[in-house]
Amino acid sequence: MSERAFAEPVQRVGAGWVALLVLAQLAVWMGFFTPIQVLLPNQIQEISPADKESLLGVVTALGAAAAVIVNPLAGALSDRTAGRFGRRHVWTFGGAILAGASLVALAGRHTILGVAIGWVLAQACLNTMLATLTAAVPDRVPVDQRGAVSAWVGIPQVLGVVLGVVLVTAIVTGTAPGYIALAVLVVLLPLPFVFATPDDRIRAEDRPPFKLTKFSPDFAWAWITRFLVQLGNALGTLYLLYFLQDRVRVADPDTGVLVLILVYTLALMATTVFAGRRSDRTGRRRVFVIWSGVVMAVAALLLAFWPTWPVAVVAAAVLGAGYGVYQAVDAALITQVLPRAADRAKDLGVINIANSAPQVLGPALAAPIVVYLGGYPVLYVATAVATLLGSVFVLRIRSVP
Question: Structure pTM?
Answer without folding.
Answer: 0.84
